[in-house]
Design brief:
The structure holds two protein chains of two kinds.
Chain A (H helix, E strand, L loop, with lengths): L3 E9 L2 E6 L3 E6 L13 E7 L2 E6 L1 H4 L12 E8 L4 E8 L1 E9 L3 E2 L13 E7 L2 E6 L1 H4 L2 H12 L1
Parallel strand pairs in A: 2-11, 5-7
Antiparallel strand pairs in A: 1-2, 1-8, 3-6, 4-5, 6-7, 9-10, 10-11
Chain B lengths: L2 H27 L5 H20 L3 H18 L7 H19 L2 H6 L1 H38 L5 H4 L2 E7 L11 H11 E9 L17 E8 L3 H7 L8 E5 L5 H10 L4 H11 L4 H16 L2 H18 L2 H19 L8 H28 L2 H25 E3 L1 H18 L2 E7 L4 E3 H22 L3 H6 L5 E11 L2 E8 L6 H10 L11 H6 L22 H10 L3 E7 L3 E9 L4 E9 L2 E6 L3 E6 L11 E4 L2 E7 H4 L22 E7 L2 E7 L1 E9 L13 E6 L5 E5 L1 H27 L1
Parallel strand pairs in B: 6-8, 13-21, 16-18
Antiparallel strand pairs in B: 1-3, 1-4, 2-3, 5-7, 8-9, 9-11, 10-11, 12-13, 12-19, 14-17, 15-16, 17-18, 20-21
Helix pairs in contact in B: 1-2, 1-4, 2-3, 3-4, 3-6, 4-6, 15-16, 17-18, 18-22
Classes of the chains: A mainly beta, B alpha+beta.
């Protein structure tokens, strides 16, 4: 039998992305965000998620694109990362969340060595659906708390 | 409870007993000695031996047994408590500690441990020799008794205990093997007879291999006290039915035991007879009389049984009463030591978190009630607030522990280190009651150890040198703890040589840490000792001088959001001051706002609030004249580079507050500074929510907190904020200077 995994697909500025469903926790409506002083652009701020203070990342900036434009349908995808030493909850800004799809491993292609305009290690693979390409992101690499912390530190100095 | 969990309890308890042994030994070392202390230390050793026996940790039992014998002799005044003995017992205590940390296999595998074992046992011989002879005698005597033993012999009955064991069915599941108890009993005396009762054994269909179906009737020939025998079953007594009848027990006691047990009376009687606990004749008589009584009406029998119980209570021998009393006293003293309840720290943290949520919710209700204009509701909410505060304080106090326990441990360290260095040191402790968050206390151990060792090794001079400069030959070392504003200060001071500034300087230049022409203040110079790889000691000693340590101290203290100050005067002494925040889960804060961003300033750091408009800046700098004092201030919006109303960027409403600026005057240590904000919102209880690892590098903000309306506020870390402002100023000056020089070009 072919192995398939479930992915949550979402859109940022007409680009389609997917993320392993196991890493996502919930999707909430964008209802304002509290900016944290002196932070680099990819950190949008923090939100109050039922009593938990959760950092929100502008994935668009993190992937080297223009900052996301906030509009009525903007939403926050809450993801949960379990690294060896800690578990970390983060929010991601997205223009729209589309659907949860099953993608069999044979339909996932390796990331192209160049041309994706995204750092290759962030990409877990590329899937094709209805003639559209979906960039499957590796959340642990893209949003590694350690790397984000280093970036913040660099920004502050 | 699994076996691991029970073993864990053993380790924790053994640790406590070892600690109490250490405390007693330290007192003895100071020349104090009384019966109570000897009893204490004996009991500790005894309990460790006893519990170790249950788990079959023979290496601990064998060693501790000898130590216990020596202590017992000291208790009986057969040997005097002298310095040599205390020294050896100290070493024995440490050895027991290392024995506890290894299991039997590891022990047999480690030759060095065995060697220490042997050496210490030899060292104990002068005090134990007579006793060991006696022990041999004791071992032989029961056998002699046995050979002569006749069931009716009164003198033998004097030592014959009867133990009725009805262990709980879960016993095996809990990792307790009844065999190990029985085996341990043989170390207390001789088991004369053991009868296994298999009445409960089910049919093979119902049989569960993990359930214990056996019960035991044991008769034990022993000189041990009731307490000792009872202690054997310490780990199972809670859920088991254990009756221990003392040698002096009357037939009535046996009868009530027979009554109590579920098995048939006649059979039990036979068992007791075969155990040798009862004679056939006395049993028959007793049973007949009892059967007669039970033939009477039901009710009278009940009352009669009750009466029997009462007489039984009256007949309880003195030994039993004494044992019970001493046990009660023991538990009482443990309670006052505050060690009685052990709570999983996660549960405690969970409680604190929940209370945090309660506080936030209370604030939300408070907001709503004030909007409702309903006086009774507002009043009720006020009461609610009051209780919430009390619950909060009570919960937080659960996490606070006095620092005294940590300080106490240094007594031993100082004693040993002083001996090793050949110095005489007197340790004074002040403020042992100062309370600190448990998490901090745990993390303070290492840094304090380093500083104390350093002070003793490098700070305090040798006896000869002290004599030469006319100081008391006993070096003074002081550990103290006290509160200062919202911080706790732990100071370690000595009256030694002080830090040799020139040597520090020379060393730093040699190591390339500073340039030979650097101009440093004393404070900066002292802080060089925290540089990794820096050590001024001419020779590397066992204790310090490897240049690791002081940088660890600094790192550990900084990890706790603390700071270290050093004061030192050549020839007079040095003082290390560790300043720590009382980082609690919930703090009293003051809510302010700057450009639409909410901040919380810890209440304890605030002196006052003033209106900035009424005070003129001194020469357009960020300084004001406050009642004659010049006070620098920093502007929140500048330091955090805030743009107006960030969170409402969609609505694009910009409200300017420039003309209505408020100044909050804060104090940190001896520094006083102002923080300029746009508006003041008043006091608020804040639940500190850490911002997470991503924001670790962000200085000046210690955490975040939720406001009653759900918005997020940032909690200011005042010392860091001031540091940040100073840093910015320097950077600005440098860039300004560069600009000028660039223009010149």
């Amino acid at each position: 039998m072919e192995k398939s995994s479930q992915f949550l697909t979402f859109t940022i500025a007409d680009e389609h992305f997917g993320m392993d469903l196991h890493q996502t926790r919930e999707i909430i409506e964008y209802a304002g965000i509290t900016q944290v002083p002196l932070m680099p652009q990819f950190i949008s701020g923090v939100i109050n998620l039922r009593g938990e203070v959760v950092p929100v990342i502008d994935l668009s900036v993190r992937l080297g694109r223009q900052p996301i434009t906030i509009h009525k349908r903007t939403c926050v995808i809450v993801i949960e990362l379990h690294t060896s030493d800690q578990h970390c909850v983060l929010g991601l800004l997205a223009d729209a969340v589309n659907e949860v799809i099953d993608i069999s491993s044979s339909n996932i292609e390796d990331a192209p060595a160049f041309g994706a305009k995204i750092r290759a290690e962030f990409i877990q693979g590329i899937a094709k659906k209805d003639d559209e390409f979906i960039v499957l992101l590796d959340a642990e690499k893209t949003l590694s708390p350690r790397e984000l912390a280093h970036l913040v530190e660099a920004e502050l100095q | 409870m699994s076996l691991d969990a029970v073993l864990q309890t053993f380790y924790v308890e053994a640790q406590e007993h070892l600690e109490s042994m250490e405390n007693v030994l330290l007192k003895m070392d100071e020349g104090e000695c009384n019966d109570e202390m000897l009893n204490d230390i004996f009991r500790s050793a005894h309990t460790i031996k006893g519990s170790a026996g249950i788990f079959g940790l023979d290496h601990i039992v064998n060693f501790t047994h000898v130590v216990e014998n020596v202590l017992d002799r000291a208790r009986d005044k057969k040997i005097a408590v002298e310095k040599d003995l205390v020294d050896v017992i100290f070493k024995c205590r440490d050895h027991i500690q290392s024995l506890v940390s290894v299991n039997l296999e590891e022990f047999t595998a480690q030759a060095d441990l065995q060697k220490i074992d042997k050496d210490l046992l030899e060292a104990l011989t002068p005090w134990a020799s007579e006793e060991s002879n006696q022990a041999v005698k004791q071992n032989t005597s029961p056998t002699e008794n046995l050979s002569e033993h006749k069931p009716t012999d009164d003198e033998d009955n004097g030592k014959l205990w009867h133990i009725s064991l009805r262990l709980s069915g879960d016993c095996l599941r809990n990792g307790m093997d009844p065999l190990s108890f029985i085996k341990f009993l043989t170390s207390l005396g001789e088991i004369k007879h053991i009868e296994t009762i298999v009445d409960n054994f089910p049919s093979s269909a119902d049989f569960d291999a993990e359930t214990l179906y056996f019960a035991y009737e044991i008769s034990l020939l022993s000189d041990a006290s009731l307490e000792e025998i009872e202690n054997t079953f310490m780990f199972v007594q809670d859920d088991s039915d254990i009756t221990i009848l003392p040698p002096s027990a009357k037939i009535d006691d046996y009868l009530s035991l027979i009554d109590k047990l579920p098995e048939e009376n006649q059979r039990l009687g036979d068992i007791l007879v075969s155990c040798g606990s009862l004679t056939k004749h006395s049993l028959e008589q007793a049973l007949i009389s009892q059967n007669k009584e039970s033939a009477e009406a039901e009710k009278p029998t009940d009352t009669h049984k009750l009466g029997q119980l009462l007489t039984e209570q009256q007949k309880v021998p003195e030994a039993v009463v004494n044992a019970a009393l001493s046990k009660q006293q023991q538990s009482k003293s443990q309670a006052t030591e505050g060690k009685q309840i052990r709570i999983d720290s996660n549960r405690l943290d969970n409680l604190i978190n929940l209370i945090g949520e309660l506080v936030i919710n209370q604030q939300r209700i408070d907001l709503l009630s004030k909007g409702s204009k309903n006086p009774p509701l507002v009043e009720a909410v006020d009461d609610f607030e009051n209780f919430t505060n009390q619950i909060r304080d009570a919960a937080l106090s659960l996490r606070m522990v006095p620092i005294g326990g940590t300080f106490q441990r240094f007594k031993r360290l100082v004693r040993d280190t002083a001996q090793e260095l050949g110095k005489e040191v007197e340790l004074t402790i002040e403020g042992a009651d100062t309370e600190l968050d448990r998490l901090m206390v745990e993390k303070l151990g290492d840094p304090l150890t380093h500083i104390v060792r350093n002070a003793m090794d490098h700070g305090l001079e040798s006896i000869e040198k002290r004599q030469a400069v006319g100081k008391n030959i006993k070096g003074q070392l002081k550990l103290s703890a006290y509160h200062e504003a919202s911080h706790i200060v732990i100071a370690i001071s000595d009256d030694g040589n002080g830090i040799d500034k020139e040597r520090v300087r020379a060393k730093a230049i040699e190591k390339g840490i500073i340039n030979s022409d650097s101009q440093l203040t004393d404070n900066e110079l002292f802080h060089l000792i925290f540089h990794p790889g820096f050590s001024t000691a001419a020779a590397v000693t066992n204790l310090s001088g490897r240049g690791v340590g002081m940088d660890v101290v600094k790192r550990n203290v900084e990890a706790l959001q603390g700071s270290i100050d050093i004061n030192s005067q050549a020839g007079v002494g040095s003082e290390f001051k560790i300043r720590l925040p009382l980082t609690l889960a919930i703090i009293d804060g003051f809510h302010v706002e700057a450009k639409g961003t909410h901040f919380i300033i810890p209440q304890a750091t605030i002196i006052e609030c003033i209106d900035l408009a009424n005070h003129q800046d001194i020469k357009a700098r960020h300084c004001i004249n406050l009642r004659g004092d010049m006070i620098p201030y920093l502007s929140m919006s500048e330091i955090f580079n805030l743009t107006p109303c960030q969170q409402h960027s969609i609505e694009n409403k910009v409200i300017e507050h420039e003309d209505k600026r408020e100044l909050v005057i804060v104090q940190f240590g001896s520094d006083v500074a102002g923080i300029a904000v746009d508006s003041l919102h008043g006091e608020i209880q804040t639940v500190v929510k850490p911002l997470g690892p991503i924001f670790k590098a962000l200085k000046g903000i210690g955490g975040s907190s939720l406001l009653g309306n759900g918005e997020i506020a940032f909690i200011l870390d005042v010392p860091q904020l001031i540091e940040l402002a100073v840093g910015n100023e320097i950077a600005n000056k440098v860039s300004a200077a560069e600009d000028i020089s660039n223009q010149d070009k």
